[in-house]
Specification:
Layout: H1 6-20, H2 28-41, E1 46-53, E2 59-65, E3 78-83, H3 91-108, H4 112-120, E4 122-126, H5 131-138, H6 167-176, H7 195-206, E5 209-216, E6 219-224, H8 250-263, E7 281-283, H9 284-287, H10 294-301, E8 305-312, H11 322-338, E9 343-349, E10 360-363, E11 366-371, E12 377-381, E13 385-392, E14 399-405, H12 418-425, E15 431-432, E16 435-441, E17 444-455, E18 461-470
Parallel strand pairs: 3-4, 3-5, 5-8, 6-7
Antiparallel strand pairs: 1-2, 2-4, 6-8, 9-12, 9-18, 10-11, 10-13, 13-14, 15-16, 16-17, 17-18
GO molecular function: metallocarboxypeptidase activity; zinc ion binding
Keywords: Carboxypeptidase, Glycoprotein, Hydrolase, Metal-binding, Metalloprotease, Protease, Secreted, Signal, Zinc
Active site: 310
Length: 472
Amino acid sequence: MSQLLWPLVRFLLLIEVAASVNFFHHRYEQLVQALFNVHNECPDITRIYTIGRSVQGRHLYVLEFSDNPGIHEPLEPEFKYVGNMHGNEVLGRELLLQLSEFLCEEYHRRNERLTRLIWDTRIHILPSMNPDGYEVAANQDPDAIGYLMGRNNANGIDLNRNFPDLNTFMYYNEKNGGPNHHIPLPANWKSQVEPETLAVIHWMSRYNFVLSANLHGGALVANYPYDKAQEQRSRGYQRKSNTPSPTPDDKLFRKLAKAYSYAHHSMHQSPTCGEQFADGITNGASWYSLSKGMQDFNYLYTNCFEITLELSCDKFPPQKDLEKEWLVNREALITYLEEVHQGIKGLVSDENNNGIAGAVISVNGIGHDVTSGDQGDYFRLLLPGTYTITASADGYRPQTATVTVGPAGPSLVSCQDVHKLERVQRGAMRMIKGLEKLPDSDRLKELDLFSFTKRRLKGDLITVSLSLFLYI
């Protein structure tokens, strides 16, 4: 290429890159076009699908990133971001569009960090859960947008007060005994939820999400469950005096919230937006109690851990601020996404290597279990430490092992049967009750695999291999 032409080509390339990232408020049609533009730019690693329609018929589009779009790969965790649940809280919507474009562009640039994230994670991005409410808010005079204008859906319902109330059942079970996870839905629940809520619940049921964040505005804080206090209190102005309502995973949720707040430019630097939040995080009920919220529902009905991110003091920030907001949130959005790779994961399978769905994975000392997915794989977010893990399934004898979780990311270990583990135990490697500690592998460590024999109810013995893949 002529040296005279090269500066012109570079200039045109810069224009093309700059034009692909547009910082403006996207109306519904523009949002849809932006999603399809990303898909067209990165068809090999993206998929667009809809989880349903709003009251007024607008699609709730999701953009998926994966090295195998549309396919759940065993032992690859599912992650979701949800934006614009309240129609007039719009920054999350725009940030998720920018994040989508950023992931696509950086993948093309062979950004090692983001390429690995896309290879190792199935990422689902729902930019707008409430497109009808957004259109109401966007039609207002920018200087006159009210605190509630466009917040609700087209039926006037606050979607973050519209999920089935499972907290009441959970609090009862804590005192009187009962399940600590996957709380059954109450009768006639479908008649009590809005189309957008129903679509999201079906979405949660279809995909075995591990981690999630729900993006809001009007404050600057990372809010974690529970949102509902055991003794219900009104919001009011004395909301900071409320007592926290911690989950059994309170320490983990605090860590997840801090992962975002400290990667954000200023969220951790309290006070913000006139309110004081140590480390830029808060327990939901400690801030103000709300019932039928989405983050509590995630935790109590599915395997997913979700927090609520309040991203700006202004619910509908001016267009000129969008680029700045993207820059102060970009690293935090990526850092939080990476938290899906913290804890243990594994596969429960039978003697024919068929996955066992619905196996319960319990952690001693933490009163919240998770279950394996349709293919037998499971994921359990945990802080670094040593844990006693028990796996159980209908028709099989429960088995227990001790595992150690380190602070970084996962590397996979293949299943081994009981005889192979016994042979390793007689060798030089350190074994604890069938638990194998494997050596380091580049920046990651492969840890801890155990297999065990369970008994069917009919009495014949089979071998079921349960592999615990630990993150360090």
